[in-house]
């Protein structure tokens, strides 16, 4: 790893910056940390993850219920909350307690007092229980459940602690039907989807799911069996694909 990047990652870990969401999502202030990823040094949040924000702008509408599984600092959560209005809402799920506090810090801002956004500090997996959660030695965006493979971006593990795990179907019982689910869980997406049989069958939300290569066959089969069409959201060409890509858009038929 280049020495400059290594130094930036060490310096960034405890920093928190105040930024503003793009105007089309309400222009509200939120806090971010480059300890999650170095891209959060940027001033313009619209350039942090344009594909993610394009998804929100395309599919999230007033009154929608949105679940953000692996919320990180809440970029999608706050973008969606700026569009759902008082009749909708957002559930941000993030097991990293430091990132949860960043989201809560944003919610404590007066300008965000009217947002319908809840934060749940748990992991989503295939069963209700307790699991171990690895904090990445590099950016916290690469944190992952110990039972998942994780990604090449972790740089090892700095610490591990126990977390409560819930399932998509448990969330369905407690929070009602979601219209939109985004999943970014660093290799644990197969576990998330295994716990969502009723969500797939009864709620039938739109999914945006980050899919690792080793989980692609399973995720592809699961969506097809539940009568979903799969698209490559990064390509943005509206052409269905057979195998779930890294940025999988799944639409109910």
Q: What does this 3D model show about the protein?
A:
It is a single chain. With 253 residues, the protein is of the alpha/beta class. It contains 8 helices and 13 strands. It has one domain (3-252): Rossmann fold (3-Layer(aba) Sandwich), CATH 3.40.50.150. Helix content is 28%, strand content 25%. The chain has a 7-stranded mixed β-sheet, with helices on both faces. It has a 4-stranded mixed β-sheet with strand order 6-9-7-8. The longest helix is centred in the middle third of the chain and has 11 residues, at 97-107. The protein is globular, with a radius of gyration of 17 Å. The chain starts with a helix and ends with a strand.
Please render the helix and strand layout as text:
Blueprint: H1 3-12, E1 17-20, E2 29-32, H2 50-59, E3 65-69, H3 75-84, E4 89-93, H4 97-107, E5 117-120, E6 123-124, E7 129-136, E8 144-145, E9 157-166, H5 168-175, E10 180-183, H6 189-194, H7 197-203, E11 206-210, H8 216-225, E12 228-232, E13 247-252
Parallel strand pairs: 3-4, 3-10, 4-5, 6-9, 10-11
Antiparallel strand pairs: 1-2, 7-8, 7-9, 11-13, 12-13
Helix pairs in contact: 2-3
